[in-house]
Design a protein that fits this description.
The structure holds two protein chains of two kinds. Chain A is of the alpha/beta class. Chain A has eleven helices and 16 strands. By secondary structure, chain B is α/β, with parallel strands linked by helices.
Chain lengths: 377, 216
């Protein structure tokens, strides 16, 4: 059996990179990790794309600091899991604009020697996909067995398949969308407004003084509400009070749900950069897979890959109807697409909280693609 | 074992009706038995629709492409005339709106293949007539209160149903079970009385050049 270890890596992409916006970045550093071993034919590589607040540490193992840390999707990615690192070579990179090692607004601007801040160009999901492709080039991987992603990661998977049709045998788009609806854009805008309005924001140049914790925490609290569902919040918190029997008649944290959100906000500001939050949400808002095509069906036409699309019944941020629109477009062009809506009370968070129900589809899907690719090559 | 051996006997009958290389959509495809057979043995380009997670997962494990859809909501997303054949095996009787399902099948496919249990079979009739109770048989194995079969039909009623929904029955195969081989065989005389199962090939009455001979 192959040894499964997390291997952190860092890649410096030299030369000028022209982004969707037309602006350029002189150099891009990419922080990535690999899990498992690339086979001799280089035919077992899977790219996993992370969501808004994720990083390259998708599975358990030592991270870039050498310390063992839980992976953000370790229930699904690891030895013997649905994305089996004993079998597949898993690559996961921090996205362009991120704050976990890859070049982003917190990185040093070579022109000034200071962090970019808002001078960092706006990046798109397509730009992220391009950087992923450049990383694969450097790893010598011509064709992926699968490109996989949930939420914003699913957008990258779709963008990758669109931009590099033929470079992936399959696409797994989970709890994601081909473009956000007004409701999701609205929540993103409230989060950005909270950050931009924090006096500590200082026009994005806060790296010496400390980041806008209050605004970023509010953005995260709003985010967490949208990741849950009415059912899951009722089950998890109800109207329970925390460490008290009666109301305080003061503006203090009383309800369990308030305490949960405050905790999530506090925890988030310790590890995440406010500017990156702005850039990521904007990239999601801009994403529209059909851009440049007469229709969504036109956009997915010609992507020679098998698709697995999964949505969750209680996800109101990336609702099932949007997955169905994607599936219908794929059906319209005769693509190989499988789709299931997974029953779950956990809202959008279900893609992190329902490993068993997802594995039920992901494991056989990857196995059959792997088998078919083996026959083809 | 080849895919053909694993196939339910009535599905094998349906499968043999499918020309090689056809584009086939199977509605209510379950774990993909028929689709895998058609792909592997008859070189068909196959797709499936299934409601259950278990069926979808099993189909996926066979490398099939299957989407979750409720047939009662129609076949939105499948373009008109995008398949040569749309198959509905033993599912017509469980849908809430059989007329919608048939019309959608005729829209999406050049031809529709439907199989269904015949409620006009003599044993069913005898069961009700003699015992005065709701029939329970091999092809209709449920009690009235927990049956998924909410729209039983007979061969005669089916023909009327097809005509009323703009279809033409091109071919009708009446099947009776063979207790000796545990399979099915075709019956040619007194079909509505002797068939336990029927398979019908239906096409749209408009835009067909096959004529409209419905007295099969």
């Amino acid at each position: 059996m192959k040894q499964t270890v997390a291997t952190p890596g860092s890649l410096l992409l030299p030369g000028g990179h022209t982004l969707t916006s037309g602006q350029t970045l002189t150099t891009i550093e990419v922080a990535y990790e690999t899990f498992g071993a690339l086979d001799a034919e280089k035919a077992n590589a899977i790219l996993v794309c992370h969501a808004l607040s994720g990083d390259s540490h998708v599975a358990d193992g030592p991270d870039a600091t050498g310390q063992p840390r839980d992976g953000w999707w370790s229930d699904l990615v690891g030895p013997g899991r649905a994305v089996d690192t004993d079998r597949y070579f898993v690559v996961c990179a921090n996205v362009l604009g991120g704050c976990s090692g890859t070049t982003g607004p917190g990185s040093e601007d070579p022109a000034t020697g200071r962090p970019y801040g808002l001078r960092f160009p706006l990046v798109t999901i397509e730009d992220m996909a391009d950087v992923h492709a450049a990383l694969l080039d450097s790893l010598g991987i011509d064709r992926l067995l699968a490109v996989v992603g949930g939420s914003m990661g699913g957008m990258q998977a779709l963008a990758f398949a669109r931009r590099y049709p033929g470079r992936c045998a399959s696409v797994l788009a989970i709890a994601t969308t081909w473009r956000l609806g007004a409701q999701a854009i609205a929540f993103n805008e409230v989060g950005r407004t909270a950050i931009l309005g924090d006096p500590s924001f200082r026009g994005g140049d806060y790296y010496d003084e400390g980041q806008p914790r209050h605004g970023l925490a509010i953005a995260r609290m709003i985010g967490h509400i949208t990741y849950l569902s009415d059912d899951s919040m009722r089950a998890k918190f109800g109207r329970r009070l925390r460490e008290r029997e009666e109301h305080a008649f003061e503006f203090v944290t009383e309800f369990e749900v308030e305490s949960y959100l405050a905790y999530q906000g506090r925890k988030f500001v310790e590890r995440f950069d406010a500017n990156t939050y702005l850039y990521m949400t904007k990239a999601m808002d801009y994403f529209d897979l059909s851009t440049g095509f007469p229709s969504l069906a036109g956009a997915v036409d010609g992507i020679d890959a098998r698709f697995l699309v999964l949505s969750f019944s209680s996800d109101w941020l990336f609702p099932t109807y949007q997955s169905r629109e994607l599936v219908d477009a794929l059906k319209a062009v005769g693509a190989e697409v499988s789709f299931a809506e997974i029953e779950s009370p956990y809202g959008h968070d279900a893609f992190l909280l329902e490993p068993v129900e997802q594995a039920r589809f992901i494991e056989p899907f990857l196995s059959s693609v792997y088998a078919a690719e083996g026959v083809a090559s | 074992m080849t895919a053909a051996h694993l196939l339910r006997s009535d599905l094998r009958f349906v499968g043999e009706l499918v020309p090689e290389g056809s584009r086939v959509l199977d509605l209510g495809c379950g774990g993909g038995d028929l689709l895998a057979y058609l792909r592997d043995e008859r070189g068909c380009r196959v797709r499936g629709v299934e409601l259950t997670a278990a069926g979808i997962a099993q189909s996926i494990s066979r490398g099939l492409s299957v989407v979750q859809d409720d047939l009662d909501c129609g076949l939105a997303g499948f373009p008109s005339r995008s398949f040569d054949l749309v198959i509905l095996s033993q599912t017509l009787q469980v849908v809430r709106n059989p007329a919608l399902v048939l019309r959608e099948m005729l829209r999406v496919g050049e031809r529709a293949v439907l199989s269904f249990p015949n409620f006009g079979h003599w044993r069913v009739r005898g069961y009700l007539a003699l015992r005065g109770r709701m029939p329970v048989s091999r092809t209709i194995p449920y009690s009235w209160f927990d049956t998924p079969n909410i729209h039983h039909t007979t061969l005669k009623d089916f023909r009327e149903f097809v005509t009323a929904n703009g279809g033409v029955v091109l071919k009708e195969i009446a099947l009776a079970s063979n207790t000796r081989t545990d399979g099915v065989h075709a019956v040619h005389v007194g079909a509505n009385l002797r068939a336990e199962l029927a398979v019908a090939i239906v096409t749209s009455a408009t835009g067909t050049t096959d004529g409209g001979d419905t007295d099969a």
